Amino acid sequence: MKMRSWRRGTKEMDMILGPYADAHLAGMAAERLALYDQLLRENDQDLLPWVLGQGAAPAVLSELIAEIGQFARTRLLR
Fold first, then answer.
1. What per-residue confidence (pLDDT) applies to 75?
2. Which of 9, 31, 39, 65 is in Cβ range 3.0-4.6 Å of 57 for a Cys bridge?
3. Residue in 54, 55, 51, 56 with CA at minimum distance from that of residue 75
4. How many CA within 13 A on the CB side of residue 32?
5. Are 39 and 74 in contact (CB under 8 A)?
6. What separation in angstroms does the CA of 12 have from each of 6, 16, 45, 60, 72?
7. Domain limits of the chain?
8. Consecutive 10-residue runs of the chain (78 residues): their mean pLDDT?
9. Helix (H, G, I), strand (E, B), or coil: what is residue 12?
10. Distance CA 7, CA 54 (A)
11. What does the pLDDT read at residue 71?
């Protein structure tokens, strides 16, 4: 999953999901890993607006997407 996070197809999503995966995958419970795996199957053109808050994410992914977006924003503010 870490490699799939860093090699998305768009550089923007690489830079969002790669660091998130590095920081969180090792500590994720099995259920959360399954949800993250589901997220990785989504298209980057859909994921990016969801993470940026420019579109509504599917309900099942909304909490995870919000967490990833907050992680990315916090990381960029450093």
1. 87
2. 65
3. 51
4. 12
5. no
6. 10, 6, 10, 23, 11
7. 2-77
8. 94 96 97 97 96 94 96 88
9. helix
10. 23
11. 96
Instruction: Report angle CA 12, 6, 50 to the nearest 5 degrees.
Output: 45
pLDDT reported for residue 62: 97
CB 45 within 8 A of CB 55: no
27 CB contacts (<8 Å, ≥6 apart)?
A: none
CA–CA separation, 58 vs 21, rounded Å?
20
Whole-Å CA distances, 46 to 5, 7, 26, 60, 65 = 15, 16, 26, 15, 11
Q: Can you say whether the dihedral through the CA atoms of 17, 14, 70, 78 is positive or negative? A: positive
| Farthest CA pair distance, the chain | 30
SS (H, E, C) 32-60: HHHHHHHHHCCCHHHHHHHHHCCCCCCHH
pTM for the structure as a whole? 0.93
